[in-house]
Amino acid sequence: MITHLLYLHGFRSSPQSFKARWMADWVARHRPDLVWACPQLPPSPAAALADIRALTAGWPVAGMGVIGSSLGGFYATIVAETRGCRAVLVNPAVDPARDLAAHIGRQTMYHAADESFDFRPEYVDELRAMTPPTPLTRPRDILAIIAKGDEVLDWREMTARYSNGPLKLIAGSDHGLSDFESHVPDLLRHLSL
Hints:
Elements lengths: L3 E5 L9 H13 L4 E3 L7 H12 L7 E6 L1 H13 L2 E5 L5 H5 L4 E5 L2 E8 L1 H9 L12 E6 L7 H7 L5 E4 L13 H7 L3
Parallel strand pairs: 1-2, 1-3, 3-4, 4-7, 7-8
Antiparallel strand pairs: 5-6
């Protein structure tokens, strides 16, 4: 049974994202006993992963679940692989080193347009250095929810990466999975929530 739940947001996102807030509200209503964490991740992937590891260091593997969206899905894959816990990925980034190389420079936050950060060239190297193994060693522990309508990431690449585990392929939707609520039952079932 899951006792600790971690939500990891995507690039330029935050704990204020629609999915993060939806899950926080669900936890408050249905599972207030859960240890819930949804940290603001720093732009440096190495720093983000260090923060995630520090936050979850004392969490019991058998009682731990992680949800990650986009870049957060990449981080969640690393957590699931290294900790041996269950994970649900929403339109996960497969090769963020390649994809984010075009975003080096000043970036604004989606949910706070007045806040910005520098995405530095060394961050691409950090992403490349932490890429999870291929094939994944624990594919059955990872449910990937992938939208064919994703306008940012290629659904075919995501599907190929996560094809050895449980997979939910959605005919339409979008990168942010604006119909997230309709897929929550699958998420809850996979995490035994």
